Amino acid sequence: MKEISRLTRLLGRSAILPILLLALATAAIAPSEPLLRPSGFNLFSKQQDIQLGQQNAAQVKKQMPVLPDSSPVVQYVQQVGRKLVSTMPQPTYPYNFHVIQE
Prior knowledge:
This protein has helices at about 1-10, 15-30, 45-65, 70-85. It is mainly α. Helix 1 crosses helix 2. The mean pLDDT is about 75.
């Protein structure tokens, strides 16, 4: 609880609410049982998806103020992200979590 209040001071109350709502919405729509087959249609291979994600992340880092990984806010978001990934039945993609100062 102490970390959350410290995080609230760092981010401000207006920034915490969207993060919490996103986390809750993600948890609410997550299937309770793993899908047997991926749904949807994808024109890219897994490696192409990963490469495209890395390219987009690099572009965002060039254009927006990304907080350093040493920031307490980033460390908290990364901790939450790792917990979310650990609940996935079989994570098939590498996940990275960063915070944009906006």
